[in-house]
TrEMBL record:
Protein family according to the UniProt entry: Belongs to the SAICAR synthetase family.
Alphabetic keyword roster: ATP-binding, Ligase, Nucleotide-binding, Purine biosynthesis
Protein name, entry field: Phosphoribosylaminoimidazole-succinocarboxamide synthase
Listed GO MF terms: ATP binding; phosphoribosylaminoimidazolesuccinocarboxamide synthase activity
SUPFAM superfamilies: SAICAR synthase-like
Catalyzed reactions: 5-amino-1-(5-phospho-D-ribosyl)imidazole-4-carboxylate + L-aspartate + ATP = (2S)-2-[5-amino-1-(5-phospho-beta-D-ribosyl)imidazole-4-carboxamido]succinate + ADP + phosphate + 2 H(+)
Annotated coiled-coil segments of the chain: none
Pfam families according to UniProt: SAICAR_synt (PF01259)
Pathway: Purine metabolism; IMP biosynthesis via de novo pathway; 5-amino-1-(5-phospho-D-ribosyl)imidazole-4-carboxamide from 5-amino-1-(5-phospho-D-ribosyl)imidazole-4-carboxylate: step 1/2
Source organism phylogeny: Bacteria, Bacillati, Bacillota, Bacilli, Lactobacillales
Gene Ontology process terms (BP): 'de novo' IMP biosynthetic process; cobalamin biosynthetic process
Domain spans labelled SAICAR synthetase/ADE2 N-terminal: 9-235
EC number: 6.3.2.6
Signal peptide interval: none
Length: 243
């Protein structure tokens, strides 16, 4: 058993900090007690937010591993920290939508939560400076961000993740409206799921009450965010047999 030591800060994002470790291809991720929206313009510190998201994302990534989705998760270390495999992040946000919401709803003037026959797949270019613009396949290739084969692989993996997430959330009496994932290249050049999957990156609605159980609570000022995230965690722990 290797004893992992936290070394220098590699990167500070909006909700997580990444540190090097004593093992070259292993990264230490610290989930911060911070929530941001509007590309970081709205930022608030919240006790237990990091812990809750770390636990949610760790459980989901473990479940995805067990279901054959390659990803960077190694293990949860403690309340706020986990270890992941080092990857080179592909600067794309892959969004899958099962129902219309937010930017899709505004762009096409359709009803809120219009149900799609097939999931909608979208790519956005990860750039704070440009406000993460929508990007299509030929634009991605023109900018040498990914090859067609890599794009097809990311879409295919995102759809598989969608299927599994919908199953998990359905067992929690939650509807998965949409979500965002990020992929990276591992040391062998394979595409694997990276980053996190949590109520920060998914839109979740309670099947019975129709209440939001995700970051929309913060974005729209609907109430306290951490208790809502804790509800999601408790339901997830039950479904994953962790309590
Ligand atoms: O919510 P917003 O209008 O900013 O964007 P969207 O394109 O409707 O978001 C689709 C899904 O991706 C939602 O579940 C968002 O929470 C998630 N997302 C994210 O996690 N990070 C972003 N930078 C943008 C969207």
């Amino acid at each position: 058993m290797v004893d992992y030591e936290k070394k220098e800060l590699l990167y500070r994002g909006k909700a997580k900090e990444m540190f090097a470790t004593n093992v070259s291809d292993v990264v230490w991720v610290h989930y911060m007690d911070q929530v941001t929206a509007l590309n970081g313009k709205k930022k608030v510190q919240m006790t237990d937010k990091g812990t809750t998201n770390n636990q949610i994302s760790s459980l989901i990534f473990s479940d995805l591993t067990a279901n054959g989705i390659p990803n960077d998760f190694i293990k949860q270390i403690d309340a706020n920290n986990q270890l992941v495999k080092k990857v080179q992040i592909i600067p794309l946000e892959v969004v899958i939508r099962n129902f219309a919401s937010s930017s899709f709803e505004r762009k096409f003037a359709v009803d809120h939560l219009l149900k799609f026959e097939q999931p909608v797949k979208e790519f956005f270019y990860k750039s704070d400076k440009l406000d993460d613009p929508f990007i299509n396949d030929s634009q991605i290739k023109a900018l040498n961000i990914a090859t067609q084969q890599q794009l097809d692989q990311m879409r295919d993996l995102a759809l598989k993740i969608n299927q599994r997430l919908r199953t998990i959330f359905a067992a929690m009496q939650i509807e998965l409206i949409d979500f965002k994932v990020e992929f990276g290249l591992d040391q062998t050049g394979e595409i694997i799921l990276a980053d996190e999957i949590s109520p920060d990156s998914c839109r979740l609605v309670d099947q019975k009450t129709k209440e939001s159980l995700d970051k929309d609570v913060f974005r729209k000022g609907l109430g306290e965010l951490v208790p809502v995230y804790k509800t999601v965690l408790q339901r997830l722990q039950k479904v994953e047999g962790h309590n």
